[in-house]
Fold:
Amino acid sequence: MYVSELGEQWHAARVEPAFAHLDSASAGRSSDAVIEAITAHLWRESERGSYVAADELSDEIASDRRDLASLVGHTADEIAFRESARASLRALLTHWSLPVASTVWVAKNEFGPNLVEFERRGYAVRVMPDGDIYGHVDTDALENMLQFEQPDFIHICHIGSMSGVVQPVTRIVEIAHQVGVPVVVDMAQSVGHVPTVTGADIIYGTSRKWLTGPRGVGFVGVRRDALRHVEIDSSEAFIAGRLGLGVAVSEVHATGQQRVFRELAKVGQATRERLHGIASWEVLEPIDEPSAIVTLAPPPGWQPSDVAAARDKLLGLGILVTAADSWRAPLAGEGSVLRLSPHLDLRRDDLDRVADALRTMGY
Ligand SMILES: *Cc1c(COP(=O)(O)O)cnc(C)c1O
Structure:
């Protein structure tokens, strides 16, 4: 029994997984059609020469770019590709002529490696206030702060790597634009997962997580009026991978993006409802947070190594999840959590198996 009405279709489009794959936040499972698009292009490259093969598919490459752009609220000519989300952020910060001592405001869920990029460049980082125990940005407090002081830009993880909390990005963008502050959104965990048309000036993300495209493809969208034109595209490119991503995006559009987002929210909610209060594990998001990332804090006294051992034990039982350590969101605290990130093919009995396993590991 699938949790989502899209479960059967999504599952049937893919190879049978070797275990319950509850780890889309690390890398989602690609469909057969995505894999076929990639391999078909690799054959074509060998037959015709890679540059001829790419030229012959220029129409498809262009329409893939439009499809991806529409998902993230940009135009096709505003999209550039890199090999990962992080490479996209690096390229952006390298080409953006920001003041030497720039100030950036981030939220509590900021991804640790992004903070490293900011620190490396000497930016002053400040944390925006959160309005609840979950770490959602308090947009009223933010609006107030921005009356007195404006950073060079706001950088926000739409969804972080260590929590299923969805930040109110559309509202943050509205508020920031009232005072002329540009907003950069890390969509690595949100694209293909929740609505991502937000009005943000700059966005970037990756193919391999919720979109279930291949690894090695990242993208950035820079609104034309946000920056003078910068050349972010890398000259060398994994064209087959971009074509695979194109198929993955077209699958989301074919199902209907709003429907995909709604069903993933349902998957997240069902997971939280099922696992809430099992032994002494604690679900860390609101039960109805509209995302499919679910994090569980371990029983009191557990060390990061214990959480890693729990993850290994789950894998031994045929259940793939992540043990997420605090480097992923260093501003949010110190503990490690178990992160479950099921996609649309989550089954009720996957959750029963996780629940049983957690119960035996509770104390
Ligand atoms: C995975 C992730 C990234 C990095 O993506 P890569 O493609 O591996 O560089 C950035 N931000 C968040 C929130 C992530 O979860």
